[in-house]
Amino acid sequence: MGQTLSEPVREKHSANGHDERLMYASSAMQGWRISMEDAHTTLLQILDKKGYSFFGVYDGHGGQNVAKYSGVHLHDRIVKDSNFGKDIEKAIKNGFLGIDEDLRNDTLFQNDPSGCTAVTAVITPDDYIYVGNAGDSRAVLSVNGEAVAMSDDHKPLNKDESSRITKAGGFIEFGRVNGNLALSRAIGDFEFKQNNNLEAEAQIVTALPDVRREKIISDKTEFLVLACDGIWDCLTSQQVISFIRKNIKENKSLQKACEDLMDRCLAKDSELGGIGCDNMTVIIVAFLNGKTVQQWYNWMASRYGNLGPEYHAEDVKPQKQEDFQDMNDELEEDLEIPSTDEYTDTDLENQNQLTIDDVSRPERENSSDSLLDSPKSETPRSLSQHSSSAKSTSKKFDNSPSKLSVEDKDRTLSHSSYPGKKSLASRIAKWGQNVNMIIGFRALSRNNEGSFGNDGKNQTRKSNLCDKGFSDSKT
């Protein structure tokens, strides 16, 4: 998670614009973090390429330098690639890998530890959307009010990602690359790209993006959302789409929708295990499809509630929150935690005389009155899976860190291991290490009811999560 301020920086840097084809709005907010490490790009026309538009979000970690550089130069790299105009997918991939190589060879970045995710969209004159993604920022398309995935989050526990990591000599610990990085693809992060015998695509962490293409359909395709994980850790893709549509129904502009979305995700207290405490950046791109700006707003307002799953239609939660709850369940079951509020002297003697000082047993909190207060895990369907059904397909990946085993000998990923196979000391230590993460998840629900507030002190502090060994700037 990293360090947090005693009070969040709520100031937003917003912009908007439009031409005859597209309308966009963007907004960025520092939030609880001690610095702003995100960058973004909004270009209705890329350089001299008439009819081509570009939008990108870059979520930095370990510093802002790589994100800022990418925000200025990545679109140039893509447009100037020889394949641009005839094979845009290849141009995007070459652009991502090319800018990564540019950074590696730049003496100004030789000792820079920072990196960034990148999710970009190129919109072509023939109404195609090309999304390139490396990392865990995300692009989601609203089609008839339904969230359609335009990218996949690159996490270390994903099957293909974990395979590449281990083949390249890396390992996964607590769901992180080499116990450090919480995502598996990024620009920069050169400490994970040191194997000179491997191509750039095969390194422990790679900048190679996935690329998806979708056609803009005039009476169905509404808008595209690009955002960093500061948004997606708090709300699901469908919730974000429905939140924006609801704002439009209430006669709010796209810029106001961006700003309201960040306010909705901002935690009221920084002791939440990182959820709602990250930098936040959002871009919304609306497809006018021959309409004026006002006609598009009227068209969208008339569609609310008539098409697709709306604000109240789901009961889901983002994967990070799901992971916290799963980890809580599994660790409690494995450790047979006493039903009393804390360990007694007798309990400690029975547990090989290990000592845990006043560790409270987390309680499960199940329900909430509103959809956005109590979401479950969700992955939006791709457009190829789109059907007449109003509900989006859900897909749950078991990313619980508690299902990892790290062998001392070779520290490789094991999908079959379970914490119960470890020593009792190891299991209790792990539970103690993660208890603040669980408490943070519990606090998220109470946070929505206003039971937490900031301490009002003009100083920085580290969250409990950081103090327990989960801190690093690469989240």
Automatic annotation (TrEMBL):
Cofactor needs: Mg(2+); Mn(2+)
Keywords: Hydrolase, Manganese, Metal-binding, Protein phosphatase
Compositional bias annotation for Basic and acidic residues: 358-367
Catalytic function, reaction form: O-phospho-L-threonyl-[protein] + H2O = L-threonyl-[protein] + phosphate
Highest taxon in the source lineage: Eukaryota
Gene Ontology molecular functions: metal ion binding; protein serine/threonine phosphatase activity
EC class (word): hydrolase
InterPro entries reported in the protein's UniProt record: PP2C (IPR015655), PP2C_BS (IPR000222), PPM-type-like_dom_sf (IPR036457), PPM-type_phosphatase-like_dom (IPR001932)
Gene3D superfamilies assigned: PPM-type phosphatase domain
SUPFAM superfamilies named in the record: PP2C-like
A Pfam family: PP2C
Domain PPM-type phosphatase, residue spans: 23-287
Compositionally biased spans, kind Low complexity: 382-392
Region (Disordered): 339-420, 446-475
EC number: 3.1.3.16
Similarity annotation: Belongs to the PP2C family.
Protein's name in the database: protein-serine/threonine phosphatase
